[in-house]
Design brief:
Blueprint (H helix, E strand, L loop, with lengths): L10 E2 L6 H17 L7 E5 L9 E5 L18 H20 L14 E4 L5 E5 L10 E5 L15
Antiparallel strand pairs: 1-2, 2-3, 4-5, 5-6
Helix pairs in contact: 1-2
């Protein structure tokens, strides 16, 4: 029996329950595997809603079940671009807060990159570091495509 004030137990989301978030998480996990190969893939965890008529609260969590930050917006499941933006933000917050380090790092500047959309609504890892001849900031790689850049992008300890 659980007391009234006990927090609800999270459950691991089964593959296929949220197919668009699964697809987005697979892309983010590709970047995680390249930049932090010692970590196991991130997962989706769900908590029951606070109100019975609301959807459950789904979080991006580490393999051990820990997460940090807000749940994914249920409306972000409408298309892959929205899902990828939400999952990338949630994954970044979880990894950075639980490991106490910026993730992913720009190999050129050593700065943490952030997900940003371009004019075609594609999501990229963006770095605020200055580039000598090409402007104040730059797009580094598409979210899910850090592996295409080679081994030079591993994060520093």
């Amino acid at each position: 029996m659980c007391a009234l004030f006990d927090p609800p137990e999270p459950r691991r989301v089964s593959p296929g329950e949220y197919p668009v978030w699964d697809q987005a998480l697979a892309l983010v996990n590709r970047d995680l595997a390249v930049t932090l190969p010692q970590l196991e893939p991130l997962q989706l965890l769900a908590l029951p809603p606070y109100d019975a008529d609301e959807p459950e609260n789904v979080h991006v969590a580490m393999a051990n079940g820990e997460w940090h930050g807000d749940c994914l917006d249920p409306n972000s499941q409408d298309d892959l671009a929205s899902a990828l933006a939400g999952v990338a933000d949630a994954a970044q917050e979880t990894v950075m807060e639980l490991l106490w380090q910026a993730w992913p790092l720009c190999p050129e500047h050593g700065l943490g990159m952030h997900p940003r959309e371009d004019a075609q609504e594609r999501l990229f890892w963006w770095c605020a570091g200055e580039r000598s001849r090409r402007g104040p900031a730059h797009v580094h790689a598409a979210v899910g495509a850090l592996d295409a850049l080679g081994a030079s992008i591993h994060t520093r300890s």
